[in-house]
Amino acid sequence: MLSIILMIITVLSAILALIQKDLLKAAILTGFSGGALAVLFQLLLAPDVALTQAIVGAAIVPVFLVLAVKKTQRDGS
Q: Which residues form the MrpA C-terminal/MbhD domain (predicted)?
């Protein structure tokens, strides 16, 4: 049952990240998707894949997305 909930969270947060107009919210939703996927991998008894997904999918990718958005924002003028 928990794995089904995690799959739903993963899919919903990925879809919401795709349709989001605010790029910072999309980056946060990408982190939710990666975190839920990491927990799902742990439940499937793949701790090495879960650890990699947690580091890359839930931490590094959202941080890089936020940094890219902050670096490329235009001034108000």
A: 9-74
Dmax (CA) of the chain: 53
Confidence of residue 26 (pLDDT cuts 50, 70, 90): very high
- Burial class from Cβ neighbours inside 10 Å (0-12, 13-18, 19+) for residue 49 reads middle
Please tell me the total count of domains within the chain. Answer: 1
Range of the domain at 27: 2-72
Looking at residue 8, its amino acid is I
Helix (DSSP H) and strand (DSSP E) numbers for the chain: 4, 0
User: Are 69 and 50 in contact, with CB atoms under 8 Å apart?
Assistant: no
Could you tell me the pTM of the whole model?
0.84
Q: pLDDT value at position 55?
A: 96
Q: The tokens of 59 are what?
A: 């931490």
Question: What are the tokens at 19?
Answer: 């349709």
